[in-house]
Amino acid sequence: MSTTNTTNHIGRKISRIRELRGMKQEALAMELGVSQQTVSNIEKSASIEADLLAQVANILGVTPEAIENFSEEAVFNIINNTYNNTSSDNSTLIASSVNYLPTFNAAEKIVELYERLLEAEKSKVEYLERLLKDK
User: Fold this and answer.
1) What average pLDDT does this structure show over 75-104?
2) Residue 80 shares a structural domain with residue 106
3) N or C: which end of the chain has fewer CB within 10 A?
4) The pLDDT of residue 101
5) What is the 3-state secondary structure (H, E, C) of 17-74?
6) What's the CATH code of the domain at 66?
7) How far apart, in whole angstroms, are the C-alpha atoms of residue 14 and residue 45?
8) This prediction's pTM
9) Which domain holds residue 50?
10) To which H or E segment does residue 125 belong?
11) Whether 17 and 72 share a structural domain
12) Residue 97 belongs to a domain
């Protein structure tokens, strides 16, 4: 039985930050220019090279130090302090929640996204039609 200290397991920290950011291994792999299996191996590693750590940190939108010092407990403390209010008065919670409301019309953004996706599909069809005509 091994008695090594695994509290600073960089791979697990990368995995957890990636999950919290809503990113899949495949997306991280694509950004790094490696296979999904390589990302899986990185996340199983207790430590990784500094330059690779810097690349991963940049993709995840954090600093290498943030990965090295990542604490899930700290994340949950921040969430609890932000959304939990032990007093009977919910005014603090309501006031802090106002800052998280979007300042845009969600329906307009959905329509805008749909139009961009439709335009991308049209350009793909045109490209494929040109390829067929050239044959």
Assistant:
1) 56
2) no
3) N
4) 53
5) HHHHCCCCHHHHHHHHCCCHHHHHHHHHCCCCCHHHHHHHHHHHCCCHHHHHCCCHHH
6) 1.10.260.40
7) 10
8) 0.54
9) 10-86
10) helix 106-134
11) yes
12) no
